[in-house]
Design brief:
Number of strands: 18
Shape: globular
CATH superfamily of the largest domain: Metal-dependent hydrolases
Number of domains: 4
CATH class of the largest domain: Alpha Beta
CATH architecture of the largest domain: Alpha-Beta Barrel
CATH topology of the largest domain: TIM Barrel
Strand content: 5-15%
């Protein structure tokens, strides 16, 4: 049971508790615990194995800590099983449908006996939802559209979840006697937003028992195939893993081949053929003679190419750029000087100003923007004018103690449907920067939504547009936008767009990042961290930027504080 599994159990339990009419504080405790666990950068199994005290985590008391340990040990959550005997267990799945909160789920269950996604689909197709108070034809149509989208979507794991699963597996394999190299290839290594399966490559000394150890991994549910150099298993999480053992001299070629993408490999083979060469997972050959394959760089060099970073291997111009010496010098995690989107417990975060500052300093940052939500309908614990000014004073007091670091006074401000900002204009002018975002009215058409964002950027107080498309991977589609018009508008107004590094968002996507570079709009990479630990999510945002061919010069928060503040001026 990994972090997402435990978080899902707690989320399901919270929904069923609310439908049952349980104490709201109890419901909130499980919901908050689910969010804490899902956002942990470390796997719960690893933490418990290392003797960590889970009660030190935000919102986790002794009772919840005991339940988490019990889930990890037994793979079961007894309270959920008990409540599912009285309420349909699939009822909690309905909470995954945008627009269906616990109150509506409760209404659907008691009035229409809707207890599963199949029941919901049947009721929507029969036109029964529109007759319910608080629904109507538009909501019914949106629900049906979402159900159909989910049915057509292949199940894939978020990259962060694949990391939590793949990391312990690699450690297990590397602990095998005789293993020399072990790496995850495929879409995981290309840092795709989601992963369908995992390909592991291993080199080892003769006689190593790595295949036997692989199929005995405790997380294995089924062994699908097993040979002398290859095995395939399905893990308890449902993820399929392929292991391939390759000789050391073929390691580089196999890494290129199994990293992909398929289109990249086909184009690479075509380039090799023009030179009278053959490329496959065993190496580069001239006729029957092996020429290269120990390293990836060798393979590309034989095709007349510079080394291509894995994130670029999508056959989207990278081979031609490698041939012509035009590959970008991709941004790296070490280039990042600070984070411009982070929350504290003053709004919906879980740590204090001081704890967030200390965590940022440990990462080597020069600055961190505190962007707690301002007060608005639907924003939990949003800061009004008085509380925001109190926070600004507290930031000044903390900054007086720092020499090489600065907390920036900021706020995440909701963009209203007409493009105005949910903040007092006078207070906005006192901030170091303003991060604006859409949190409501996702269903507007592209022109209306783009106009809304452009009107927000017309306000000279706005410096950054956060998570510009509003998507949540596997949960909510991006809202409709004219992205080219939005980016051109941002460039004209000297407003920055955010690459949100939250693993559930990764918004902008790689294609949008590349478009931003072509148009000339500047970007920031920020974590939208709600805990001190999740400031570490910056790496996922950097992955996204690299997939979009971005260099350090394209990212504002690769600059020192003085240069950044100068660039933020409107």
């Amino acid at each position: 049971m990994h972090n997402p599994d435990i978080a899902e159990l707690f989320s399901r339990y919270a929904v069923l508790l609310e439908v049952k009419g349980a104490n709201p504080f109890r419901v909130r405790a499980y919901r908050n615990a689910a969010r804490t666990i899902e956002n942990l950068p470390r796997d719960i199994n690893e933490m418990l194995g290392g003797g960590a005290d889970l009660t030190e985590l935000p919102g986790i008391g002794e009772d919840l800590a005991h339940k988490i340990a019990d889930i990890v040990t037994t793979g079961r959550f007894t309270p959920l099983e008990e409540i599912s005997r009285r309420l349909p267990g699939h009822l909690a799945e309905l909470a995954e449908v945008p627009g269906l909160g616990p109150k509506r789920i409760k209404l659907l269950f008691h009035r229409l006996k809707v207890g599963s996604m199949a029941d919901l689909a049947a009721a929507a197709r029969a036109g029964r939802l529109r007759k319910m108070k608080g629904f109507g034809p538009k909501i019914e149509a949106n629900i049906l559209k979402e159900i159909e989208r989910r049915a057509a979507t292949t199940t894939r794991l978020r990259l962060s979840v694949a990391e939590q699963i793949g990391g312990p597996l690699l450690a297990w394999l590397r602990d095998t006697e005789g293993v020399e190299e072990a790496v995850i290839a495929g879409s995981f290594r290309r840092r795709r937003e989601t992963v369908g399966d995992i390909d592991v490559l291993v080199t080892c000394r003769k006689g190593s028992s790595v295949i036997e150890r692989f199929v005995l991994y405790p997380e294995v549910a089924d062994v699908l195939a097993k040979g002398s150099t290859r095995a395939t298993v399905r893990l308890k999480s449902g993820l399929q893993v392929d292991l391939r053992v390759v000789p050391a001299r073929s390691y580089g070629a196999a890494l290129v081949y199994f990293t992909g993408s398929k289109a990249h490999n086909i184009a690479l083979r075509a380039m090799a053929m023009k030179r009278g060469l053959k490329f496959n997972e065993y190496g580069v050959f001239k006729g029957a003679r092996w020429l290269a394959g120990r390293t990836e760089a060798e393979v590309y060099a034989k095709a007349g190419l510079a080394y291509i970073e894995p994130e670029l291997r999508e056959n989207s111009g990278e081979l031609e750029a490698a041939r012509d010496g035009r590959l970008p010098d991709l941004v790296s995690l070490s280039d990042i000087k600070g984070d411009l989107h982070a929350h504290t417990r003053a709004s919906d975060g879980q740590d204090s100003l001081k704890e967030m500052a200390e965590a940022a300093r440990k990462l080597g940052y020069s600055y961190l923007a505190i962007t707690d939500h301002t007060a608005h309908v639907g924003i939990v614990h949003g800061l009004d004018r008085r509380r925001l000014r109190q926070q600004m004073a507290a930031i000044d007091r903390l900054n007086a103690k720092f020499r090489d670091f600065r907390l920036l006074k900021s706020a995440e401000v909701d963009i209203l449907p007409d493009g105005r900002l949910a903040i007092d204009p006078g207070v906005a002018k006192e901030l170091d920067l303003v991060v604006a975002a859409i949190h409501t009215k996702f269903g507007n058409d592209a022109r209306t939504q783009t106009d809304r964002l452009l009107r927000a950027m017309d306000d000279p107080c706005v410096n950054i547009i956060a998570h510009p498309t509003g998507r949540l991977l596997g949960e909510r589609e991006p809202y409709e936008l004219d992205m080219q018009r939005l980016m051109e508008g941002a460039r004209e107004r000297n407003c920055l767009l955010e690459i949100n590094a939250q693993p559930s968002r990764l918004d902008l996507n790689g294609a949008h990042c590349r478009l931003a570079k072509q148009i000339g709009v500047r970007l920031v990479i920020s974590t939208d961290a709600h805990t001190a630990e999740t400031l570490g999510y910056m790496r996922f945002g950097v992955d996204q930027a690299r997939r979009g061919w971005l260099e350090a010069t394209n990212i504002a928060n690769t600059r020192n504080l003085a240069t950044l503040l100068a660039q933020l001026k409107r």
